[in-house]
UniProtKB/TrEMBL annotation, chains A, B:
<dbReference type="Pfam" id="PF00155">
    <property type="entry name" value="Aminotran_1_2"/>
</dbReference>
<keyword id="KW-0032">Aminotransferase</keyword>
<dbReference type="GO" id="GO:0008483">
    <property type="term" value="F:transaminase activity"/>
</dbReference>
<dbReference type="InterPro" id="IPR015422">
    <property type="entry name" value="PyrdxlP-dep_Trfase_small"/>
</dbReference>
<keyword id="KW-0663">Pyridoxal phosphate</keyword>
<dbReference type="InterPro" id="IPR004839">
    <property type="entry name" value="Aminotransferase_I/II_large"/>
</dbReference>
<dbReference type="InterPro" id="IPR050596">
    <property type="entry name" value="AspAT/PAT-like"/>
</dbReference>
<keyword id="KW-0808">Transferase</keyword>
<comment type="similarity">
    <text>Belongs to the class-I pyridoxal-phosphate-dependent aminotransferase family.</text>
</comment>
<feature type="domain" description="Aminotransferase class I/classII large">
    <location>
        <begin position="54"/>
        <end position="385"/>
    </location>
</feature>
<dbReference type="GO" id="GO:0006520">
    <property type="term" value="P:amino acid metabolic process"/>
</dbReference>
<dbReference type="InterPro" id="IPR015421">
    <property type="entry name" value="PyrdxlP-dep_Trfase_major"/>
</dbReference>
<dbReference type="GO" id="GO:0030170">
    <property type="term" value="F:pyridoxal phosphate binding"/>
</dbReference>
<dbReference type="InterPro" id="IPR015424">
    <property type="entry name" value="PyrdxlP-dep_Trfase"/>
</dbReference>
<protein>
    <submittedName>
        <fullName>Aspartate aminotransferase</fullName>
    </submittedName>
</protein>
Length: 405, 405
């Protein structure tokens, strides 16, 4: 096969979250009648006012940015300098470690943009990159796109209770085998589990020992449920030249429509990321950057309420799931994802997911987007209208009953 | 050298348009006193109301998009389906050839995003890509980033009057040498010249003969000066499976703060581009996409006036330049760039450009960003306040006098 054709054949998007519209419509011979109810798309959060609207003041900040004209439209490629200074202070306070906005921070078009720039700044064709299983679906594709090699590290999230369950022996094996880059999300996407302080300390120690760069995607690190403690890798005992942290306001803050992300850490890597950004997209949208002025500056109590509302949905959905015989799910400690392992079904997972959409108006993402092993799991983003989400998961439970092996 | 370090060492951005703020500030021993006057940054267009403000209705379209909520925030990766349908009709009418919005069009974060996706869909490490000299500065960097090889094709824009002056023999040599991709801008950036109908026909014929894919960046193809005729490559006699056209509303329409671009053409390439977009940025900003509803639907007479105003600035700047002994400049036929070749200077071009900024508050882009040979030229984006632009070019003329060899 032509190498270019082969390369793109591996890069699928049809099962990716948000792309379901591209799948063939209609039911393909499902069991039983349609279930009535409000359609819920769990492939991503619902940013409508009936669910979780954007941070107050976001649109006003955008309009004010547009009114500033050219200085806001054309920022440095790494983002507006003054804004980076402000954000660096807030991110330093949040993560517990100093940050230089001039040298150690870049604004990107979404966190996806930040992830691409970070990985492409650390790895090239032939290099090895350690990737968690399961983890955010694009991590694997990013490595494949670069022609680099994935070294998988398993996470025993269903059996471990104290921490994420990262197989540290496998991470060390990956480093021993030559992986110089490790990419992971914390809180983990899709499971919602958090790495313990001990796990983070050991990841840091291994990275130091093998001189590896760690890219940590902390997209959901603000949405922590009660009783949870979170450890920022960049504040751990790790060589600061070897860490990049990625965040953004698109999830908890529901600002996804503006496409904003940030990456911060080692100045020499941020420098590379800016050079790459010049090539792939120039800069985060100028006017949208202005919206970041609202980030970490939300109204008093707003974030607490947002967490409380998500925790209430989480708990109600867990109740429904835990009544399904044979279904296993770990309680998410952060973020808005649930990743239940389904009981054995009589149909392949991807067929079940399509029946679910056609028969119950419920969209979920198959577990295979996160790990090739997870042909038994589905991911739900429960940042949704509370009532609609519970009813949708009740329909999901009924369909599991119909399709049970 | 470490291959990754080597790769990034080649990717510079410090002299790229818009990045001048990163250069060391202050004058470094220039000749003579500072020249007073309004600072003008010719590295990009001025989108302030005192120069060329965004299309009427743009911010209102954005605000309406934000109010639509989730459906506007989360579009397909290739962009909102309904909007693509509308734009396809308008782009078909503009280019004179049918276009299927469902299969042949993708919305991207800026035209830079579109260029990256297009090139990366056609070429990989080791492949040869034909690139014009001079041409848009990022084209060369895109090819280098992919590890592909640039096969340069010269453009004799200063001596030819009928057409751009593409050396078609060199293009054929590039194809013979194995280049399967040809990327060029039309109107040409930085010179503002247009390829003649005969040149486009021959590019098409050569692409057909050698089975090469042509990516044509038509970013400025709406801003045509009086008496000029423009030929759309996609409407020429060329294999439709081998053409991708790139446009966007960031220049003539001054919508750069929204970061929007489009690519349209061969469905199999658009498909690849979407797969890549899923990796590098997911999608064009959701709310910003709504602004494209104003594109090719500007108020009656608005575009004509915008062209007239630019043509008046062009003509006044040309008058100033042509009074400078030894300076050569071709009259731009489209777009808002001027690319004068300066008389011989006593200092290297990059030093002159820095003196110009420090002593005369005039920012221009060195010709070397567009062709390694153009150590004698500078590019100016004259989409500026008319009076300020003329005065700035008068100061530039004075500094040429001071630094003349």
């Amino acid at each position: 096969m032509n190498p270019l054709v082969e390369k793109f054949a591996k890069l699928g998007t049809d099962n990716a979250p948000g792309q379901e519209v591209r799948q063939a419509a209609g039911d393909v011979g499902g069991i039983g009648d349609k279930l009535e109810g409000t359609a819920v798309d769990f492939s991503h959060g619902d940013v409508n006012p009936t669910a979780f609207a954007p941070t107050p003041g976001a649109i006003e900040a955008f309009v004010a940015g547009e009114a500033r004209g050219g200085s806001q439209a054309y920022t440095e490629y790494r983002g507006d300098g003054a804004l980076r200074g402000v954000l660096a202070e807030r991110l330093a306070a949040f993560t517990g470690k100093a940050l230089d906005g001039a040298r150690e921070l870049i604004l990107t078009p979404g966190t996806q943009g930040a992830l691409f720039l970070a990985i492409a700044s650390c790895a090239m064709a032939g290099d090895k990159v350690a990737i968690m299983r399961p983890d955010y679906f694009a991590n694997r594709k990013l490595v494949e796109f670069l022609g680099a090699e994935i070294v998988p590290v398993e996470m025993d999230y269903l059996n471990v209770r104290d921490g994420a369950g990262i197989r540290l022996d496998e991470l060390e094996d990956a480093f021993k085998a030559g992986a110089k880059t490790f990419l992971f999300s914390n809180p983990n996407n899709p499971t919602g589990v958090i790495y313990s302080a001990a796990e983070i300390a050991q990841i840091a120690a291994l990275a130091n020992r093998y001189g590896a760069t760690v890219i940590v995607d902390q997209l959901y690190s603000r949405l922590l449920y009660s009783g949870v403690s979170y450890t920022h890798l960049r504040a751990a005992d790790i060589d600061a030249d070897n860490v990049v942290t990625i965040m953004g306001p698109s999830k908890t803050e529901s600002l996804s429509g503006y496409r904003l992300g940030v990456a911060f850490g080692a100045a020499h890597l941020i420098e590379r990321m800016e050079k790459l950004q010049a090539i792939v997209s120039l800069r985060a949208p100028g006017y949208s950057q202005a919206v970041l002025s609202t980030w970490f500056a939300e109204p008093e109590g707003w974030m607490d309420q947002r967490i409380r509302l998500h925790q209430a949905i989480r708990d109600d959905l867990l109740d429904v799931f835990r009544a399904v015989p044979g279904l296993t799910v770990r309680t998410p400690e952060a973020g808005s994802y649930l990743f239940p392992r389904l009981p054995r079904l009589a149909v392949p997972l991807h067929d079940f997911v399509r029946h679910l959409r056609a028969q119950a108006a419920v969209t979920v993402t198959p577990g295979t987007e996160f790990s090739p092993h997870r042909i038994d799991s589905i991911r739900l983003n429960f940042s949704q209208n509370h009532v609609a989400a519970v009813q949708a998961v009740e329909r999901l439970a009924e369909l599991i009953g119909r399709y049970r092996a």
